[in-house]
Write a structure and sequence with these properties.
This protein is of the alpha+beta class and 391 residues long. Helix content is 26%, strand content 19%. β11 and β12 form a beta hairpin. α4 packs antiparallel against α5. The radius of gyration is 24 Å and the shape is globular.
Length: 391
């Protein structure tokens, strides 16, 4: 481990370099191998007085929490989804204090958080928001499908990478580490979590759906304070009463409202599941988007066909509406630094590594912000906004 990243309700996280068991750094350097940039999370035990249970049951409770911590990590490790980090290993480590500390190592996600992106670049447009909703709903569908719940979904826990978004920070993944109040962030609690009763529905998948609705509203440009017209850090009863009214989504476009509004239903039983929301979003993505369900759809004929030389109106998402690529003329300017714009409208610095022989009009670019097998991507020349991709 190299440096601390933060501390949460269950422990601390550290940046680390990950290697397989029995693989030395020297062997990797000399004989070849793969090192992964990772995040290691350690579960640190709370003091007995911090937990609202009888002192005589503290040791039993702590052991149960440690086992749950590891079980969740092991369950996550079996999920094959491009929208959540990989889990490399989970185990317990003996300490001089006599307690075996549970820990797990996950993939370190490079890029920027959704919170940073919205704060610096402003709201996402309609197609960018649909793309984002698709990725996070796919992540939720994967974890809900194995009986886990995230419980701390917010813009800072959504990381944006070239071409996709990923859900991170699974420290509160199945049951909240209750110490008088839920783990989480004010303004993102579901209404059922703000009453005076702690019950099973407070830890149900519907709570994640509500938090995603808040997150998407912020990504679309709605301020957290304006969403319910109350201070989200204020009294729980006041916030909960405000949530009984419809959310104040301002002048969002009907398609965006159609996705977000059902997620913010006051009653958890009325919120759609992650699977149902994902299918809705896939049907709303622009024709041609590989994540959508309409990439091969042909619109029904309505009246006489338009003249062949009529120019179709531009779509809001330039990546989804790019015209047919023309063959590249010239050689790739290998090693040149360029800036590309992806489907989410994010700009990324990269280095040209060659032409994409399988896709005319595309150039292969290695992203400087990412590592591993996915750091080389194919982009049409129209999405290279700075630099010289061709010699």
């Amino acid at each position: 481990m190299t440096e601390p990243l933060g501390r949460g309700g269950q422990g601390t996280t550290w940046r680390a370099i990950w290697k397989k068991d029995g693989q030395s750094f020297t062997r990797v350097a000399v004989a070849g191998g793969q090192l992964e940039r990772a995040v290691v999370k350690l579960m640190l035990p709370p003091a007995p007085e911090e937990v609202p249970i009888p002192a005589q049951r503290f040791d039993e409770w702590l052991e149960h929490e440690a086992n749950e911590f590891l079980n969740e990590a092991m369950t996550l490790s079996k999920i094959d989804s491009p929208y959540i980090p990989k889990v490399y290993q989970a185990a317990r480590q003996s300490t001089q204090a006599g307690w075996k500390v549970p820990w797990f190592a996950t993939e370190l996600i490079s890029g920027r958080s959704l919170g940073e992106q919205v704060g610096s670049q402003g709201p996402l447009d309609q197609n960018q928001l649909l793309d984002l909703a698709h990725d996070i709903l796919a992540a939720l569908s994967a974890i809900h499908g194995v009986g886990l719940v995230h419980l701390d979904l917010k813009p800072d826990n959504v990381m944006l990478e070239p071409g996709k978004a990923r859900l991170i920070d699974f420290g509160l993944v199945s049951r909240a580490n209750v110490r008088g109040r839920f783990g989480g962030t004010p303004g993102f609690f579901a209404p059922e979590q703000l009453d005076d009763v702690i019950e099973e529905r407070d830890f149900a998948p519907a709570a994640d759906i509500f938090k995603l609705g808040v997150t998407l509203a912020i990504a679309a440009g709605v301020r957290l304070r304006d969403l319910w017209a109350v201070d989200p850090y204020g009294d729980d009863d006041v916030v909960r009463r405000a949530m009984k009214e419809r959310p104040r989504l301002g002048d969002l476009k009907p398609v965006v409202r159609q996705v977000i509004e059902p997620m913010l239903e006051f009653s958890p039983e009325r919120r759609p599941s992650a699977d149902a929301s994902l299918q809705r979003v896939r049907g709303l993505l622009p024709v041609g988007n590989a994540k959508g369900s309409r990439q091969d759809a042909v619109p029904p004929a309505r009246g006489p066909a338009p003249p062949q030389n009529r120019v179709a109106p531009a779509r809001a998402n330039p990546a989804a509406a790019a015209p047919a690529a023309k063959p590249v003329r010239g050689q790739a300017n290998v090693g040149a630094k360029v800036v590309v714009v992806d489907r989410l409208g994010l700009d990324w610095t990269g280095v040209v590594v060659g032409l994409d022989e399988k896709r005319p009009g595309h150039v292969l670019i290695r992203h400087e912000a990412t590592r591993g097998n996915d750091n080389v991507r194919s982009y049409p020349l129209s999405q290279v906004v700075r630099g010289r991709p061709l010699a």
